[in-house]
Amino acid sequence: MEKITFFLEQNLVPLLKPAFDSFHSVIDQLPPPVWRFSICAYLVMGTIWALFLSRDYVLLGSPDQARWRDLRLWIPVLLVPYLLIYLFI
After folding, report:
1. Domain co-membership, 39 together with 74
2. Could you give the number of structural domains in the chain?
3. What is the pLDDT of residue 62?
4. pLDDT of residue 52
5. Same domain for 73 and 44
6. For the chain, what is the radius of gyration of the CA atoms?
7. Are 49 and 80 found together in one domain?
8. Per-residue pLDDT of the chain (89 residues; tens, 9 = 90+)
9. Residues in Cβ contact with 73 at an 8 Å cutoff, skipping those fewer than 6 apart
10. pLDDT at res. 31
11. Which residues span the domain enclosing 84?
12. How far apart are CA 76 and CA 50, in angstroms?
């Protein structure tokens, strides 16, 4: 595990640090409720987008058309814990 951490710190961190530093310089000027609202809005918009995907596209490659395989139904269910984390923790 230490080798992986060392590899990532040596190779990935220098590559991503400039982008994250510029993002943090912008975001740090905003109050925390704005961050939380932005993250929640992003998650909700993604969920709404997924709900409007066609059934044929969502079930593409599925062995059958069973209702439980429809990912449009799973996405809102899986989104709720993330929203609770961002809103209340």
Report:
1. yes
2. 2
3. 84
4. 92
5. yes
6. 19
7. yes
8. 888 889 888 988 888 888 888 888 888 899 988 888 888 898 899 999 988 999 888 888 888 888 888 888 898 889 989 888 888 87
9. 67
10. 92
11. 31-89
12. 9
Q: Is the dihedral of CA 10, 15, 20, 21 positive or negative?
A: positive
Give me the pLDDT at residue 48, please: 92
Do residues 53 and 73 lie in contact, with contact meaning Cβ atoms separated by under 8 Å? Answer: no
d(CA 58, CA 19): 33
Are 22 and 41 within one domain?
no
Rounded Cα distance, 26 and 38, in Å: 13
Pair (26, 47) in one structural domain: no
For residues 40 and 15, state if they share a domain: no
> Do 25 and 35 share a domain, yes or no?
no
Based on the fold, state whether residues 15 and 37 are members of the same structural domain. no
Has this prediction a pTM greater than 0.85? no
CB 59 within 8 A of CB 65: yes
Asked if 45 and 30 count as a contact pair (C-beta separation under 8 A), the reply is: no
Beta-carbon count within 10 A of 47 CB? 17
